[in-house]
């Protein structure tokens, strides 16, 4: 439904809402929750720095990977070269997305262990970010030669990796509760990096007042959603 019926309208709106949810979840709840624990603040800041650098390197590797393949770049390729390369990019997207979703599941489990309200808004933040990302991945798979049904099935299987991550997190973090503050900080570094480095620059490309006002309002709506969901805490 999102990929075909509502693609043009919903993706841009979800990006703006996702920014508000991610920033407020990280700065107003996850990070304060982590720093209110007994963990060493210096170690938590080091985790935050390491997380930001780790996400930077992951994005850099993705950019370098895509730079090796340019459709219609003016260079002569052997017949079938672009199709093979596009197919490879599709499988690489699936592997990367599966690992990403598995990590998301662990982060959601850690947030729920910290407190249920934080777990709820963390899950909501991940959902708001995942919808545009999964639509993008779906389009990449179609470009790589996957049929719509095949692309949907493989995307769904990758999404189920979040369930696996959540179950593993549920059964392991209970015994390693001291790791929860560090997982929360690492999750926050990912939210902050994605929001500031990826999503907000996309929004800045739309510079008219008519386009900017809804963006600001939706960011504010994202913040209000997080505040509302955690107001009982």
From TrEMBL:
<protein>
    <submittedName>
        <fullName>ZIP family metal transporter</fullName>
    </submittedName>
</protein>
<feature type="transmembrane region" description="Helical">
    <location>
        <begin position="212"/>
        <end position="232"/>
    </location>
</feature>
<feature type="transmembrane region" description="Helical">
    <location>
        <begin position="179"/>
        <end position="200"/>
    </location>
</feature>
<feature type="transmembrane region" description="Helical">
    <location>
        <begin position="152"/>
        <end position="173"/>
    </location>
</feature>
<dbReference type="InterPro" id="IPR003689">
    <property type="entry name" value="ZIP"/>
</dbReference>
<keyword id="KW-1133">Transmembrane helix</keyword>
<dbReference type="Pfam" id="PF02535">
    <property type="entry name" value="Zip"/>
</dbReference>
<keyword id="KW-0472">Membrane</keyword>
<keyword id="KW-0812">Transmembrane</keyword>
<dbReference type="GO" id="GO:0016020">
    <property type="term" value="C:membrane"/>
</dbReference>
<feature type="transmembrane region" description="Helical">
    <location>
        <begin position="40"/>
        <end position="58"/>
    </location>
</feature>
<dbReference type="GO" id="GO:0046873">
    <property type="term" value="F:metal ion transmembrane transporter activity"/>
</dbReference>
């Amino acid at each position: 439904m999102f990929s075909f019926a509502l693609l043009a309208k919903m993706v841009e709106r979800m990006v703006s809402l996702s920014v508000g949810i991610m920033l407020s979840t990280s700065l107003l709840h996850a990070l304060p929750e982590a720093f209110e624990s007994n963990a060493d603040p210096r170690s938590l800041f080091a985790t935050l720095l390491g997380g930001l650098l780790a996400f930077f390197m992951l994005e850099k590797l993705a950019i370098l990977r895509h730079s090796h393949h340019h459709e219609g770049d003016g260079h002569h390729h052997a017949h079938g070269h672009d199709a093979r390369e596009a197919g490879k990019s599709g499988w690489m997207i699936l592997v990367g997305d599966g690992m990403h979703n598995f990590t998301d599941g662990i982060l959601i489990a850690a947030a729920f262990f910290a407190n249920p309200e934080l777990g709820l808004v963390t899950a909501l933040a991940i959902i708001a970010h995942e919808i545009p990302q999964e639509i993008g991945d779906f389009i990449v798979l179609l470009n790589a030669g996957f049929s719509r049904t095949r692309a949907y099935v493989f995307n769904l299987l990758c999404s189920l990796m979040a369930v696996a991550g959540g179950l593993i997190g549920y059964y392991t973090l209970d015994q390693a509760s001291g790791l929860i503050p560090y997982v929360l900080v690492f999750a926050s570094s990912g939210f902050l990096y994605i929001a500031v480095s990826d999503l907000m620059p996309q929004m800045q490309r739309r510079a008219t007042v008519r386009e900017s006002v809804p963006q600001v309002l939706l960011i504010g709506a994202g913040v209000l959603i997080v505040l509302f969901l955690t107001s009982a805490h």
